[in-house]
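BUG: 3D viewer hangs when loading the predicted structure for this chain

Environment: internal workstation, default settings.
Expected: structure renders.
Actual: progress bar stalls at 90%.

Input used:
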Amino acid sequence: MIKPRTPPGVMELLPREQIAFQRMLDTIRRTFERFGFLPVETPVMELSEVLLTKSGGETERQVYFVQSTGALEKPAAGLPELALRFDLTVPLARYVAEHEHALAFPFRRYQMQRVYRGERAQRGRFREFYQCDIDVIGKDTLSPRFDAEIPAVIAAVFGQLAIGEFTIQLNHRKLLRGWFEGLGIAGEAQLLVLRELDKLDKRGGEAVRATLAGEGFGLSAEVVDRLMAFSQVRARGQAGALAALEALGPGTPLFEEGRAELRAIFAQLAALGVPDARYALNLSIARGLDYYTGVVYETTLDAYPQIGSICSGGRYENLAGHYTKSKLPGVGISIGLTRLFYQLREAGLLAAADSSVDVLVALLDDADLADMLALSQQLRAAGLNVETQLEPRKLKKQLEYADKAGIRCVLLRGAEEAARGVVAVKDLRRGEQYDLPLAELAQALPARLRGGAAA
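Structure tokens produced before the viewer hung:
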């Protein structure tokens, strides 16, 4: 007999945990839609030649290829035709390039689907996980004003999720690259320094300093000191961020361009009503991916910095250059929801969710089945989610079942309640029981459950 077990690197949840996860998905989806983003879904499989636009890199070593049993019987000839998507950005690039002439630009899309990576199996690392992305894609150009709207979406999402205080940290690649230019760091060396500074939170200041001063970089002690001092700049809120930017002094034209765009973003955040406590300037944020060209974002939980970034992204200039000659600049973010859910659960920040079932209609006597089924239908018509016990059991057993399943209310209608024309409602969450007239149940119970009437 084969032992039942899930493969490593996947998250499989029990029903009440799955409900909590689904409610997070629903909250994120509603918030994205309130900001005017449109839903997109792409196939879990992409053509390998489309997905792997660069060969031999880190990405290809983590890709899962897909083959049918029929294909396995044939001699292998190069890579398999299909591969599982490893993020939602490459499928978005293909999607926009393929449907470019049918889309309205700027194209505002959200996508919430699973992705797959061949991660090394270890605790908290996932091979299958949900990403929740938004992007705004322009045709030829995209105003920097969209760069300020993204943090407003982040603030709304995590405010609605209510998982604790958080900070959206912002930086700008033009500001960084302009600063590097002023220090005499140019070309490929800029990307190497960017990637190293992006490791500050993981490796620590001393380790990064030692690497920058080492043989691979060959930077002078003075340049390293200025890089490290620059990366230590932090300022919360609009006034603090603007003051910190001003204190940096004059710089190269590219530096000044980045500073001007950041200033405009901070001004727009105030107009969007994003509280000062929600965002900060952090000049150590670089985002290691090379395609970011402008503002970059990372969001962290204030009380749990060890969780790391819970939402990140930024501005890029050419999303679909591998698939079309059109220039398609954009800005976007991604929430790795599976990892976030796992980390929150491990930290004890997620309470067990109630069942999505509002009411369990108990069956005390087999002769009452038809009445209980009719009662259940009335409550469903009133907007409640209802489960009906289809076989009579001892009341204690039915209550234990409801409690274990997380169902809030159990409805009882025995001979005594029927004689009085009422239904007994046992609210397991509040630990109380009350009667409601049968004729008024479909109107009164939903109001009670939503807090519209005193218990």
